[in-house]
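Run Prefoldin subunit 3 through structure prediction, thanks.
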Amino acid sequence: ISKYQFMEMNLQRRMAGLKDKIPEIQKTLDTVRFLKLRKDETEPIETTFELNETLYSRANIPATSEVYIWLGANVMLSYTTDEAETLLSSKLATANTSLSHCEEDLDFLREQITTMEVATARVYNWEVVQKRKDKAGEEVTKGQSGEKTGPSKN
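Sure, done. The structure for Prefoldin subunit 3 is below.
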């Protein structure tokens, strides 16, 4: 049971990571699509962006056909908006697929844990019944041999 519970814990952690990552990928994809739509406009976009958790700055973003995507592990790459949209769409689809697989695996593990717990409880209950039968059999044997097993009714 502990192995199943360990696997369940790992899947829950993985799901939590995916649930955090999916909205971030979606937001980035939406931004790339927005920039792609505004590519032909001459007027820059004025925006406020986060520098730190509590520090923001304003910027004017000219029309662009190139974006930089942070891939993690100290890696940032330049992509055209078309390439970025394709990349982010595939990453989003992969993350959603992975999340659904995690949910299925987690459901299966929960069923297995429940089955194991029920089987363990049944074995334990059977053992208790057997011990009671054995004890009752010993008392009957002692009673037939003439030994007193309980208080007398004199």
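The chain is about 65% helix and 20% strand.
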